[in-house]
Amino acid sequence: MRPVEAVGVLVPAHDESETIGACVRSVLTALDAVPGLRVRALCVLADRCSDGTAARARDAIARHPAGARVRHAVLETGPGDPPAPVGAVRARAAATVLTLLGSPGPPGAEAGRTWLLSTDADCTVEPGWVRGHLARADSGADAVIGGVVLDLPGSPVPPGEPPPPDRPVYAANLGVRATAFTAVGGFPAIDCGEDHGIVARLRASGYRVLPGPVDDVRTSARTVGRARGGLADLLARHAGVGGRVAGSPVA
Description:
By secondary structure, the protein is α/β, with parallel strands linked by helices.
């Protein structure tokens, strides 16, 4: 299999002005840390934001040394626009990334050398995040599911995760080859679980899904989230029944 030459990252956001700057900076650093790529891209989709999410994303791109080397777009939907399922928002951001990369829509040789990465606006990624995904892609993976750690002392994993070698599925740390992504129809346009939805589609179609690193994405431990049924709701439920969200790592 020929190595990946183009990488793009999508970041959906809803009222994330406090975290989007750090997220964008970390993604740009990770994209810039991979030599030899033909093209790199980033799309932030500020969905129905009532704060300065889009402006802070643009400022972070403009101030970052890699900003001029990464094709980028910061899209906005208005606060008065009808709400769209989070899966549809992520799908639109993915389509924009593929356009920025110049990858064709239908599967083809060039799309096979293009890797699409997803993370969230309340996350930061390690400098080696993109490299870790591409190492697995170049070994034959069609998709990579990586773990997350909570932004708390001790870097605990979210409660309820399966033990290794199994891996949870998070849209905050998900990579997919463009050929596979387009062949299965991308992210399903659903309110929650679009990450599990696309991974199920990939597996059902026979694509190779490999586990990725478990600690290269750090995510917020907030218990009030932007998407219903997401990680914040899980943490809220866990805390509500006497579990610990903060402190020592969760097994």
